[in-house]
Design goal:
The protein folds into 2 domains: 119 residues, no CATH class; 56 residues, no CATH class. The chain is 15% helix and 29% strand. Strands 1-2-3-4-5-11-6 form a 7-stranded mixed sheet, with no helix packed on it. The chain has a 4-stranded antiparallel sheet with strand order 8-9-7-10. The chain is elongated and about 65 Å long. Its EC number is 2.3.2.27. It is an enzyme of class 2 (transferase). This is RING-type E3 ubiquitin transferase. GO terms for molecular function: polysaccharide binding; ubiquitin protein ligase activity; zinc ion binding.
């Protein structure tokens, strides 16, 4: 009736609800205002592996909840919506575009929440109209400015003397470039919504879904 994922979810929910594992998998927080951490997430180095789903490891850093990936991606987790399977993240250094090159979704258990995605080319530009494209202040520095151009922009309008190509970025949410330091991610596996209803005994809701 249940696949492996659903069985694992059901096992974990029953274990937690009944105080299994010597209460090792109880809900936790990194700070008084931090998001509640529970399955499929776990606090690594504080909770056993079986308390979370593979790839959903979180840690605490100065009362902040931190999501780290082997690709050097580091994000603060500001909120978790378990019903929608959505996490709200931000960059610890207030420079989300700096991490763009490290986002490898094939090695990431999460997906970009925003549907509108674009390809960008980043250039080091000087002496250009700053209204042409999006300036990246946190990537810029004294004597140089970094701008993001959509891949379809006629870059020939900017003289080669005033631009140096940095790198390409493929299929990233527009908000990751234009909307500041916030990024929404969601997950599709594990899906524990129906399993939770069954584990709590609400069979009428389970059958209605």
């Amino acid at each position: 009736m249940f696949g492996n994922v659903s069985f694992f979810c059901l096992f974990m929910l029953v274990l937690v609800n009944r105080g299994g594992g010597l209460n090792e998998c109880k809900e936790s927080r990194c700070g008084i205002h931090g998001p509640v951490i529970r399955f499929p997430f776990r606090l690594k180095d504080k909770q056993p592996d079986y308390c979370g789903y593979p790839g959903f490891d979180l840690s605490c850093k100065k009362h902040h909840t931190l999501l780290e990936r082997p690709t050097s991606v580091k994000l603060y987790v500001d909120g978790i919506d378990y019903a929608s399977q959505l996490i709200f993240t931000s960059d610890p250094d207030n420079c989300l575009p700096r991490q763009l090159l490290n986002f490898n979704l094939s090695a990431f258990p999460f997906q970009f929440r925003d549907e509108s995605r674009y390809d960008y080319v980043l250039f080091n530009c000087s002496s250009i109209d700053r209204n042409l494209q999006l300036q990246m202040p946190c990537l810029s520095g004294p004597g140089y400015d970094i701008f993001a151009f959509t891949s379809g922009y006629p870059i020939s309008l900017v003289s080669p003397a005033y631009r140096t190509k940095m790198f390409n970025i493929s299929s990233v949410p527009g908000k990751m470039i234009s909307a500041g330091n916030f990024l929404h991610l969601n997950w599709s596996q594990p899906t524990c919504i129906k399993t939770k209803l069954l584990a709590t005994g609400d069979l009428s809701l389970q059958l209605a879904l």
